[in-house]
Amino acid sequence: LNIQALGTVLMQTFSTAGDAACSLLASGGGAELLVRMMAEFPDSSEVQDPAAIVLCRLAVLGPEPFQQVCAAGGVHAMLRALEVHLQCPDMPHCGVMATACCQAGDDCYVRVEPVKTIGLLLSAMASFPDEPKIQALCCRGLLDLQRGKIGTSRATRIVDEGGLEAVLKSLRAHPKEIEVQIAGVSALRKLVCDTPERGKHFVRCDGLEPLCLALRAGPEQESICEHGLGIL
User: Fold this and answer.
1) Per-residue pLDDT tens for 180-228?
2) pTM assigned to the model
3) Which residues contact 183 (CB under 8 A, 6 or more apart)?
4) What are the residues whose beta carbons fall under 8 Å from the beta carbon of 101, sequence distance 6 or more?
5) What proportions of the chain, in percent to the nearest 5, are helix, strand and coil?
6) Residue closest to 117 by CA, chosen among 143, 136, 99, 94
7) Fewer Cβ atoms within 10 A, N terminus or C terminus of the chain?
8) Residue 94 · residue 53 · CB < 8 Å
9) Could you give the CA distance from residue 153 to residue 79 in angstroms, rounded to a whole number?
10) CA distances from 45 to 29, 30, 42, 86, 90 (A)
């Protein structure tokens, strides 16, 4: 275990050198090696945490590295790590990034089991309510899950699991964090506007107050204005 843990930490350190270093890792079979180590030591945060960080960095390099990570089972590995090791400092970030990587299309969404991912994102939001970066990433993840051909059904599932309330709670808790406000309002528009029932649910949850606060706090932010006014 010590050798594997040291190896993942070294790969993590190497990956901080930039995109060129990450590209070398990706082309050299780094994703496959990391996924194998994560599968071999599922209970070790010393392996899971740095390995998930490196996979996350590889996945966001571009289409080809992303496909390499997917083909190796890396997105599933990151989500499993998030589920088991949620309290590790970087796990929520990596798990949410795994979801965010899946903007590439519906096939990739299928690979990450979106129903399971919704629960993981909401768990991260509940576990780290005072971390604005995690809250913003989670809101973006919920938004990303609503894209594509079956986005409407996913939005319904998110609302059913308490996602609307989670986004509103995040907006209320971080009124001065512009990234939270942008991501939260963007996610809200998709959650609220598809059906009249969801719009009524939004009003019942007192959603107008944090929405109006977001509009007043970020009038120069085009995204907040567009999506906020779209909800109204």
Assistant:
1) 888 888 888 888 877 778 878 888 888 878 777 777 776 666 667 666 6
2) 0.66
3) 135, 136, 137, 139, 140, 143
4) 59, 60, 66, 69, 75, 108
5) 80, 0, 20
6) 99
7) C
8) yes
9) 21
10) 22, 19, 8, 10, 11
Contact of 70 with 107, CB cutoff 8 Å = no
Is 87 buried (19+), middle (13-18) or exposed (0-12) by CB count in 10 A?
Answer: exposed
Q: Can you tell me which residue has the tokens 């932010």? A: 221
Q: Three-state SS for 44?
A: coil
**152-183 pLDDT, tens per residue?**
778 888 899 999 999 999 999 998 888 888 88
pLDDT per residue over 6-52, tens digit each?
A: 888 788 788 778 788 888 888 889 999 999 999 998 888 888 888 88
Amino acid identity of residue 41, one-letter, is F
Kindly state the tokens that stand for 10. Answer: 């070294």
The residue assigned the tokens 């949620």 is 86
b/e code 96-117 from CB counts within 10 Å (16+ = b): bbbbbbbeeeeebbebbebeeb
Measured CA to CA in angstroms, residue 127 lies from 58, 85, 86, 170, 181 at distances of 26, 12, 8, 12, 19
**Where do we find the tokens 């599922």?**
42
Give the closest residue to 134 by CA, choosing from 161, 186, 162, 95. Answer: 95
